[in-house]
Inverse folding.
């Protein structure tokens, strides 16, 4: 059973949003020297190796809450497919014909899709009006944040937008499936997901990009190490832990924080402006998190 989010859980939520929002700086540096497929495969492999080393010093906790009729191995493979493999292809391909602002809005639908799918997949789904209002407000915040470029929606070809949306749907499906994995040590859960996700990505990279023929600069390697150890390994451990504690819907709210982090980093490091639009978007996301608290308060009063 999921618990009511506490202050440490909110810190985890913002931590995930910060790590995944800040990853674009290092990702941009890496892809300026290496193909995106090799960058994705390398960061996931580095993350898997990092967590494999870390697990040598972590006591194994016996899993609890069996997955039921679905085998645990199948769940791990499905989470790896829908979390690490499919979105990488779908979103990268879709961005060829979709602006980054539109991509952010489409990916902002992840919490809404997660809430909807939780009714059918999650074993501990608590769909109520507060949860629905929370994810809707957060999504409106993302739309407000990206509004100046929202007019480009539909101009790049619907097939590209459908691909990005399917990437968002894949994320939502994976987080609900992760909730069905037997509770154990989050670091081992993240490690298994990354190893399984690295296999098809590495195979594709070796076949398409031929990494041994690429020019591996110091900047690219440094960016990959940060992406692998921090933005993949550490972030996925936090992600798995938060799913275990508070469930998929609450964890998916980190998706609203990611674009806000991008805006904040732009203000701090590139002297970009922070105006009324950004302030309204931030306020809407904060209100969305507050409404999410009302959902848990309402649920506790009914007990």
């Amino acid at each position: 059973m999921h618990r009511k989010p506490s202050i440490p859980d909110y810190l985890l939520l913002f931590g995930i949003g910060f790590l995944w929002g800040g990853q674009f700086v290092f990702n941009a540096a890496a892809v300026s020297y290496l193909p995106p497929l090799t960058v994705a495969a390398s960061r996931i492999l580095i993350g898997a190796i990092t967590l494999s080393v870390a697990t040598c010093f972590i006591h194994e906790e016996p899993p609890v809450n069996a997955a039921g009729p679905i085998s645990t191995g199948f769940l791990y493979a499905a989470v790896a497919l829908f979390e690490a493999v499919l979105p990488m292809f779908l979103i990268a391909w879709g961005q060829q014909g979709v602006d980054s602002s539109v991509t952010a809005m489409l990916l902002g639908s992840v919490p809404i899709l997660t809430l909807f799918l939780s009714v059918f997949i999650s074993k501990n789904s608590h769909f109520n009006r507060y949860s629905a209002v929370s994810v809707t407000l957060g999504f409106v915040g993302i739309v407000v944040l990206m509004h100046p470029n929202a007019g480009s929606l539909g101009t790049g070809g619907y097939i590209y937008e459908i691909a990005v949306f399917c990437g968002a749907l894949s994320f939502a499906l994976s987080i609900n499936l992760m909730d069905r994995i037997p509770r154990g040590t989050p670091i081992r859960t993240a490690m298994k997901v990354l190893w399984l996700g690295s296999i098809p990505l590495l195979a594709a990279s070796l076949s398409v990009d031929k990494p041994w023929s690429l020019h591996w600069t110091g900047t690219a390697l440094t960016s990959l190490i940060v992406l692998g150890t921090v933005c993949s390994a550490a972030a996925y451990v936090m992600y798995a832990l938060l799913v275990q504690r508070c469930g998929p819907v609450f964890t998916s709210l980190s998706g609203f924080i990611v674009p806000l982090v991008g805006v904040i980093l732009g203000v701090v490091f590139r002297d970009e402006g922070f105006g009324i639009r950004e302030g309204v978007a931030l306020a809407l996301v904060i209100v969305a998190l507050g409404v999410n608290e009302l959902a848990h308060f309402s649920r506790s009063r009914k007990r």
